[in-house]
Amino acid sequence: MTLYDLTLVQVQFGALRALDIDRLSLPENSACALLGPNGSGKTTLLHVLALLRPPTRGAVSFMGEPVSWREKTLLPLRRKVVLVDQHPIMFSTTVIKNVSYGPKMRGESRSFQKRIALECLDRVGMKEYADRPAHRLSGGETQRVAIARALACGPRVLLLDEPTAGVDIENQSVVEKIIFDLCSEKNMSILFSTHNPIQAERLARSKIYLSAGRLAAPAAENRFPARVLQQNGLLALIDNREIHTGPPPEIFSTGSFVSIDPEKIRVYANARGNSGPRNGWLAAKVLQISAETDRIRVVLDAGKAGGTLLTALLKAGDVRQNRIVPGDSVQITLDPDALRIEKPPA
Fold first, then answer.
1. How far apart are the C-alpha atoms of 286 and 300, rounded to whole Å?
2. Is residue 275 within 8 Å of residue 255, measured between CB atoms?
3. What 8-state DSSP symbol labels residue 137?
4. DSSP strand E in the chain: where?
5. pLDDT greater than 90 at residue 296
6. Rounded CA gap, 171 and 129, in Å?
7. Is 293 helix (H, G, I), strand (E, B) or coil?
8. Cα separation of 210 and 212, whole Å?
9. How far lies 78's CA from each of 67, 69, 70, 187, 215, in Å?
């Protein structure tokens, strides 16, 4: 069964069109990652899927039935979907009372509330925190309790908005393990938003890419705010790393974006361990290598301080010839037609 069907869905905030999706279908019992830059519409889409925000225009079907955006008809549907916000808020009471809140509101017995709350806390590794004040937890602990609180409602669909954003490294790995385990559930569908393509690759079976509120091709992984420079035809990425691209077609001020075709990125091993960029090249570090249908996907960190992630799709022979492995320092160059430059809005 199809879990969601969205047709000609738009969400408008005044003059801003935050979401504009012609058609999107999500299968039941799936694990899907939602990727895109800030402002691409990820949170807005999650709110529509959580049945919390009606679209300005368009139709949404949930589990084969058209959604009528009236409170009376929404209530039974919302009991099947739970959204965990990026910054969840805890009630000023104990952890276990936070987690048992959903079953309590549904009229479950006290014994059931306690049993299901402890089971869900145990599942996220927070059972020993049951009697602690929830509002005094760390960010990572709060995220884990919020997931337990969502699971206590017995949802068919779990939506997570940037579940590891602002979470310390130790809790990030724990939250990822929780998501990974949940993705194997046969009676639950999971959709989580993330900026991290490596995390998406690791946890999700499928991916959705958003750009400016619209569905985008996978190349949207390599989409950056940028400015085009006249001098030497250089393109400055988000952290001012420069790639030689040849003369730009036009000169734009701030507000531009550049997309880099992952199949037109060339990756070479460093000669004699020299990690500094040569003229027209960019130094990077290999973070992950995985096999696609007919290509090898290589995720690269091309940022000075980390965080500028590029995805390259390479031929297997090129990877073997250059002996590229995770952890390597490498050099990147681009084909002349690798870039697509988007003008800022008029």
1. 5
2. no
3. S
4. 2-13, 16-27, 31-35, 57-62, 65-66, 81-84, 157-161, 189-194, 206-211, 214-216, 223-228, 234-236, 242-244, 256-260, 265-269, 282-291, 296-301, 309-314, 329-334, 339-342
5. no
6. 15
7. coil
8. 7
9. 11, 11, 12, 17, 25
* Both tokens assigned to 60: 């949404």
pLDDT score for 83: 96
CA distance 121 to 40: 33
d(CA 299, CA 309): 7
pLDDT band at 167 (very low <50, low <70, confident <90, very high): confident
Contact assessment for residue 80 and residue 4, using Cβ atoms and an 8 Å cutoff: no
Q: In what order do the strands lie in the sheet with 234-236?
A: 242-244, 234-236, 223-228, 256-260, 339-342
What are the CA-CA distances from residue 236 to residues 153, 224, 249, 260, 340 (Å)? 47, 10, 15, 13, 14
Rounded (10°) angle between helices 139-151 and 169-183:
20
Compute the distance between CA of residue 334 and CA of residue 244 in angstroms, rounded to an integer: 8
Listed range (78-82, 112-116, 200-204, 273-277) with the worst mean pLDDT:
273-277
Q: What is the pLDDT of residue 261?
A: 79
CA of 294: how far to CAs of 147, 315, 316, in Å? 37, 8, 8
Task: List, in sequence order, every residue forming a beta bridge with 314; answer none if it has no partner.
Answer: 296
CA-CA distance, 37 to 43, in Å (whole number)? 11
- Strand pairing report for 31-35 and 189-194: parallel
| pLDDT tens, position by position, 216-272 | 766 456 777 665 554 444 444 444 445 544 544 454 555 566 777 788 888 988 754
Retrieve residue 340's tokens.
Answer: 């697509």
d(CA 284, CA 270): 10
CA distance 123 to 178: 8
Angle among Cα 35, 37, 38 to the nearest 5 degrees reads: 120
- Residue 2: CA count within 13 A, CB half-sphere: 12
User: Are 8 and 182 contacting, i.e. CB atoms less than 8 angstroms apart?
Assistant: no
**Under 8 Å between Cβ of 314 and 296:** yes
